[in-house]
Amino acid sequence: MSKIDGKRVVLSLVCVVLGFMIAFSYNLTKDNQGVREDKAWNQEYELRQQLIEQEKQNREFQKELLQKQDIVSKIEKDLAQEKQLFFNLAKDTEKYRMFLGKVKVRGTGLQVTLEDGTNMDPKANVNDYLVHEQHVFKVVNELYISGAEAVAINGQRLNRDSYIICNGPVITVDGHQHPAPFIISAIGDPDVLGASLDLPGGIKEQLVDDNIIFTMEKKKNIIFDPVIGG
Fold first, then answer.
1. CATH number assigned to the domain with residue range 104-224, chosen from the 4 options 1.10.10.10, 3.30.70.1880, 1.10.520.10, 3.40.50.720
2. Helix segments in the chain, DSSP class H
């Protein structure tokens, strides 16, 4: 074999080895790249799964939150109704206490004065010109019906057990005698109370027809003390 042939053999051998090394390096690089790509894909897949799971949990939490908000809303509504109920009970209790004369009351109102008639016919019966208990009853009842919170006769406050009896020219209220004129005071809306008494054919006209002198006056400040022993 000549030297030239020997160099060719060596060169060929070197080329073969070099090609093998290049191919091995390429395959190794390709495999490593594939591993990296697989690893990156797996990481991305895990992140997506975690995100999907997190969104699922968020939807569950949101659903639970809405349910709890509904419960809280119902509780608040129930509390508001109970608060209104207690307020109404307290208001009614205060109204009944005023009606029963248990508490001191102050407010605007109306004052009605009933006096015996003066233009008496000499031939007429004197009793036809006197204020009787039925006249006082009519005024008191109409005042209560019209919304009066408290009523007094000549400063004596009425309560649930009050009674009125006529004894000639005087009337007896709960055992206390009062001569005419009879001043009936009521706490309430003076416009409403006055209008109810002054209706056509109402209490005022009826009493005037019975020869009673009827006057009424609005008051800005009326004070009633509690009924003693009431």
1. 3.30.70.1880
2. 3-100, 133-145, 190-197, 203-209
